[in-house]
Amino acid sequence: MVVHVAWKQLPGDKAYRVLEAGPTILVSTRNAAGRADLMTVGFHMVISHEGVLAAVVSPGDFSQRSLAETGECVLGVPGVDLAEQVVDIGNCSGFDVDKFERFGLTPKKGNHVAAPLVEECLRRHLQRRR
């Protein structure tokens, strides 16, 4: 599945600079029942300066289902201090575990979407709504 993400809160050229370097990102979602989840995304690319990002997401994952269900997510750029958690988040399923709780991360209310921001992510968050 290819997910196209448009951001509104940063001008396209600034968001482009944050993501073009290719950092591994954390994508947070919240399903219609209100359950939050995180996934690690290592393969993504900026498509244009207008704010379109393509990311490869495995079909059937908890986060992918939540994203398809609600059309909302938050992209968080983690710092190197979160490297171990980022790897571990990518190696377990949201069907089995609350990743915020397990990895000691803090969900924070977003301004534009129901999906949570990750407090510990470098103060760089891109909120997306379909």
From TrEMBL:
Any one GO molecular function term: FMN binding
Start and end residues of each Flavin reductase like domain: 21-122
Presence of the UniProt keyword Cell membrane in the record: no
Coiled coil: none
Keywords: Flavoprotein
Cofactor(s) the record lists: FMN
Pfam families, alphabetized: Flavin_Reduct
Gene3D superfamilies: Electron Transport, Fmn-binding Protein, Chain A
Family: Belongs to the flavoredoxin family.
The protein's name: Flavin reductase like domain-containing protein
Organism: Asanoa hainanensis
Upper taxonomic lineage: Bacteria, Bacillati, Actinomycetota, Actinomycetes, Micromonosporales
